[in-house]
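INFO  loader      accepted 1 record
INFO  loader      residues=275
INFO  predictor   begin
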Amino acid sequence: MAEPKATGKAGRNLPAAIGVGVGLGAVIVASLLVEKAAFIGVIALAVLFALRELSNALKERGIVLPLVPVCVGGLGILAAAYFSGEGALASVLALTAVAILVWRLADGAEGYLRDATAGILAVVYVPFLAGFAALLTAEDQGAQRVLLFLILVVCNDTGGYAAGVLIGRHPLAPKISPKKSWEGLFGSVVAAAAAGAVGMNLMLHGQYWQGAVTGVAVVASATLGDLCESMIKRDLGIKDMGHLLPGHGGIMDRLDSLLPTAPVVYLLLSVFLRK
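INFO  predictor   done
INFO  writer      dumping tokens
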């Protein structure tokens, strides 16, 4: 008989989750320290896997994602953001939307609006939002900015998980994500605000209050991103977007809080660290 998996109160296989998290963190930090462009390659791989997972999940509702223009356009969005900035990011997004509409013509009128709309949603949701991480990377002190961004998201997750497991009593959004609690949200705010205050000062020489504000904003965006992905999964009738990462689910299940947070951190750091 197989041994039961070690799961915590929140339903995760903790040993696997921790091991995978540490491994992913090592790859990300190594890519940033070696060459910033290598980190863009890591983002690109994550985006491609995420789009594949999303495509498979949408098939549960009979939606066929135009995967070729979505993936090619997604890679173009990341490259444009890193090498040419915000304007190029928006321009390639627009061209990708047109390419999706044209590509889907070949399969006829049945389901055209459904599939094309899903394709445009996928491009905006995954590579476009990920493009702001590429914008962060391209900035002066890009590695430090990305590391602060990642640290804040990790602190949001860790603080929320710890507080939720230890003292969580009051559901935050029981109809969307029953395991989230108000106590967990408070834990996320404390952890992310503290990490933001210290990290902003030590890594980017900003003010403590700026880091705290950034940390609280990260909690808001990450929580909303997590809830939105939970709603998508509920609508599709699935538990996880994939099974690539033991203890976590799929790539999309790890990107759910990162994707909407990238533009928030990019905007705040652009304002706070403006020369």
